[in-house]
Amino acid sequence: MSRELRVDWPECRARGLCHELLPEIVQLDPWGYPLVTGEVTEDLLADARAAVRACPRLALRIVGS
Questions:
Q1: Residues 61, 46: contact at Cβ < 8 Å?
Q2: Number of domains in the chain
Q3: Domain containing 23 — which CATH number?
């Protein structure tokens, strides 16, 4: 089962909440935009869902099975 976190770049405003909630796979570039560096594993799924819900611009989603 492979899941990944996707960023809707036109919507993202570099608030950094996704990094705060999911630092295991979300790093920030020098301007504060998220860089997803890994898959959403089963043990990270709850945190990934929280990051998706917390995004103020609804710029995150989880894709995959």
A1: no
A2: 1
A3: 3.30.70.20
What's the CA gap between 59 and 54, in Å, rounded? 10
State the average pLDDT over residues 12-40: 97
Residue with tokens 């990051």: 51
CA-CA distances (angstroms) from residue 48 to 14, 30, 44? Answer: 17, 22, 6
In the chain, what is the straight-line distance between the N-terminal and C-terminal CA atoms, in Å? 6
Taking only the tens place, the pLDDT of each residue in 33-60 is 999 999 999 999 999 999 999 999 999 9
| Collapsed DSSP state (helix, strand, coil) of residue 64 | strand
34's tokens:
């998220």
| Residue 46 belongs to domain spanning | 3-64
